[in-house]
C-alpha cells in the first residue's frame, strides 16, 4: 500500500496570469501547476539550466535537419554562436538547409495544398514549408561544385570540411558559420543521406580527388567522451542523430543530463520513441542522471526552454 505522505508532496497551484511577466515566470508557473506536458517542460528548463551552468560538463546538441528549414534555425544558430553546446550531432540535411537558406529564401506553406500541384509548380514541400526547386538542389549543386574544388589540398575529417563550408558561407544567420567561428564540431554520422553527401559522391565519381578521413569524426567523439568529467545532451527528435549521441556516451557510463524532445511513441520499440529509462538499461544515461522527456513539437518547446533560461539570467 502506498503511503499518502510519500506520494503527495506538493499542492497543484493555478497559473496566475497577473504574475507572469516573462518566459521564466511562465515556466515556473507551469512547474507549480504540476500537470501533464507543462510540468515536464518546466523540468526540462531546470535540467537545461543545470547543464548550461555546469562548467565541467561537455554538452551535446542533437537534432534532425527538418527544423533547420523553419525559424528554429535562428535558435540553433544563436545557441551555436553563444557556445551553449560544445558539439553538434545532426543529420545531413542540416548542411543542405543551412546552405540553401544562406543562398535563397524558403516560404510559408500549407499542409493541405495538393502535392501534385506543388510538383507541377516545381515546389518542394517540407511539412508546411515550401521550397522552390531552384532554391534547393540546383543552388546546392552549383555552390558545392565550386566549394569542393577549393578544398582539395589536404586530408580532412568530415567535421573539418563542414567548418570549411561554414567559413565559405560567411553568413551570420548560418549555423555552420558559427560552428566554424567557434570551432564546434558538427558530426553527421549519416552524411551521405542528403544533397551534401550526394554532391560529395558525385564530385569524386567525376574523377576528382578529395582526401577524407572518414574515421576522424569518430576518433574525436571517442576523445571527447573519455576525457569528459560529465556530459549532457539536448536531444531533439530521434533517428541517427539521437542514437549516435547516446551511443557514444555509454562509453563514459552514460549522460549526466539528458533532455528528450519528441513526437514519437515508444510502443513500436523505435529508438526515436524510446524514453530515457530505456537508455539507462543500456548505460547510455546514468541511473542517477537528470533526465526528462517532453512530448511535443520542438519548434514550440525549444524556444520556450532557451528563452526561459536566458530570461532567468
For the secondary structure, the number of strands is 11
Summed over residues and divided by their number, the pLDDT gives a mean of 95
Count the DSSP helices: 14
CATH topology: Deoxyhypusine Synthase
Strand order, biggest sheet?
Answer: 7-2-1-9-10-11
Elements, N to C (H/E): HHHEHEHEHEEHEHHEHEHEHEHEH
**Residue ranges: pLDDT <50 for 5 or more in a row?**
none
The shape, in one word, is globular
Overall tally of domains? 1
> Largest sheet, if any?
6 strands, parallel
Beta-strand share of residues: 15-25%
- Alpha-carbon distance between the two ends: 43 Å
Identify the CATH architecture: 3-Layer(aba) Sandwich
Helix content: 40-55%
The helix-and-strand class reads alpha/beta
The CATH superfamily is known as Deoxyhypusine synthase
The level 1 CATH classification is Alpha Beta
Radius of gyration, rounded?
21 Å
Written account of the structure:
The protein has 14 helices and 11 strands. The chain has 313 residues and is of the alpha/beta class. The chain has a single domain, classed as Deoxyhypusine synthase (Deoxyhypusine Synthase), CATH 3.40.910.10. A 6-stranded parallel sheet has the order 7-2-1-9-10-11, sandwiched between helices. α2 (23-33) crosses α14. The model has no long low-confidence stretch (mean pLDDT 95).
Amino acid at each position: 500500500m502506498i503511503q499518502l505522505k510519500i506520494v503527495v508532496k506538493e499542492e497543484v497551484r493555478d497559473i496566475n496570469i497577473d504574475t507572469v511577466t516573462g518566459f521564466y515566470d511562465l515556466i515556473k508557473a507551469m512547474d507549480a501547476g504540476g500537470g501533464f506536458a507543462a510540468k515536464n517542460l518546466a523540468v526540462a528548463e531546470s535540467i537545461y539550466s543545470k547543464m548550461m551552468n555546469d562548467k565541467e560538463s561537455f554538452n551535446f546538441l542533437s537534432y534532425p535537419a527538418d527544423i533547420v528549414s523553419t525559424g528554429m534555425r535562428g535558435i540553433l544558430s544563436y545557441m551555436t554562436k553563444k557556445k551553449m553546446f560544445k558539439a553538434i550531432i545532426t543529420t545531413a540535411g542540416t548542411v543542405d538547409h543551412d546552405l540553401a537558406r544562406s543562398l535563397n529564401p524558403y516560404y510559408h506553406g500549407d499542409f493541405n495544398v495538393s502535392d501534385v500541384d506543388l510538383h507541377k509548380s516545381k515546389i518542394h514541400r517540407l511539412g508546411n514549408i515550401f521550397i522552390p526547386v531552384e532554391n534547393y538542389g540546383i543552388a546546392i549543386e552549383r555552390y558545392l561544385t565550386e566549394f569542393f574544388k577549393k578544398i582539395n589540398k589536404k586530408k580532412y575529417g568530415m567535421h573539418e570540411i563542414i567548418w570549411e563550408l561554414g567559413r565559405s558561407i560567411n553568413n551570420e544567420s548560418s549555423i555552420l558559420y558559427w560552428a566554424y567561428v567557434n570551432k564546434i564540431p558538427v558530426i553527421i554520422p549519416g552524411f551521405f543521406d542528403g544533397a551534401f553527401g550526394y554532391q560529395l559522391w558525385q564530385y569524386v565519381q567525376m574523377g576528382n580527388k578529395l582526401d577524407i578521413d572518414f574515421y576522424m569524426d569518430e576518433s574525436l567523439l571517442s576523445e571527447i567522451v573519455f576525457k569528459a568529467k560529465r556530459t549532457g545532451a539536448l536531444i531533439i527528435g530521434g533517428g541517427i542523430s539521437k542514437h549516435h549521441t547516446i551511443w557514444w556516451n555509454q562509453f563514459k557510463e552514460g549522460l549526466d543530463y539528458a533532455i528528450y524532445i519528441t513526437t514519437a511513441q515508444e510502443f513500436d520499440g523505435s529508438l526515436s520513441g524510446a524514453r530515457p529509462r530505456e537508455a539507462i538499461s543500456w548505460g547510455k544515461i546514468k541511473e542517477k542522471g537528470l533526465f526528462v522527456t517532453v512530448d511535443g513539437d520542438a519548434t514550440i518547446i525549444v524556444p520556450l526552454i532557451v528563452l526561459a533560461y536566458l530570461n532567468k539570467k
